[in-house]
Records
---
Amino acid sequence: MRTHTGRSGDECEASVLRRVGEYAVRMPSTQFFCLVSACVLWNAPLPPSAFFTLADDGTWKDRPLDVGVTLPARAPRCDGVRGRSVNPGWADVVEHPLSGLPLTSPASTWAMMGQFLADDDLIALGDAMVREPMHPDDPPALASLAALDTAIAVGRRPGIPRLREALPFIRTRSRSRQETRLRLALTRDARLPEPSLNWPVYIDEVVVALIDVAYPRVRVGFEYEGEQHLTDAAQWAKDIRRYEMLADLGWRIIRVTKSDLDLERTAFIRRARAAVAASVRAADA
């Protein structure tokens, strides 16, 4: 997906990582990466707007690196860096397990982003922090729901009301920001029941598919189709075979695009309600 500056999300993250590496070689021991910089280091999802700031001349430029200190230490002031002064106890600082860089813990990172992110994006960030492994090679969750709750309770940090509103909606089985947005569209906008996330479908006790958002009782599933599904021929062919298999097993799969969630949300909500209602009637008949 391209941002309003023409760069992809991967390019934006790569830019942050490059600048983090450049600053880290001269960063004093009292400083640590936080906010957007920490999110990128934890490979946690952010909306495209998080990577840019609007300059005085009306153009968009890269957001400065977010570098924090614990008071009473003095926040850094230099080109390309935005210093953040953090009250004692408001942020746990840890070493990144791969890079060894100092940064806020996943739970603290989520809590600090409460003052900057809209509700859905704050929930999506929380989902990423607590995501449980769903495949044998998946890494462990970065944080727990209890850790997020503890991060809220440390003091009257900015964004507390938004964090408290977001926490009850965070789930451990969402695999992407768009999957989270899809779930919220179904439950909060369409007012459908709470679905199962990445629901496993079995054949002969073997998992053959994980359905992004599912209503297993009536066998209705919603699958988010990212751009890679349309541009990768091998992935496209795999998707077709997968949907045919699920149809043979009695599943009705509703395929959802970015346009459905951003531009045609009302129409998508009507379609989702109709699909679930029809399947409920069929199951109860």
---
Amino acid sequence: MMQIKVLKVRIADEFLLQDQKMIDDFLNNHEIIKVETAFVHDESFWSVVLYFNEYKDVVTKNIVKDSKTAKYSAEDEMLSPDEIVILDALKIWRSEKAREQNLPSYFIATNKELISVAKYKPAKKEELLDIKGFGKHKIENYGEEILEILESV
């Protein structure tokens, strides 16, 4: 069953990390179907409406995943020079996408997700599903473009 969550993302620097973490936690634990945003000028914050499904394997706050559903996630690994070139290209694309869609860039993809793409180098849309943070919605919206960037770099 689809549910809705409204988040307030404050622009002020002192709230940025806190709000980013709240959003990352939410995005990691839910399958996002659709996102709508609006900027509230008087108070300088983004109002973000997320339409989502609960992940079925999230039973408690401590996510327990069996090895079959474990997704690839690049932690604090060093990037090779080639991977840095890919990451830079992905970040430029993400910035343009965010501007086009009037969204904060981390809604398109987080740095960790882009690093994971640069290291994992998926060649097909299905392989994007293996990367933590990539669900059906994100792949439908951005999968083709991400794969084109990987091919062209």
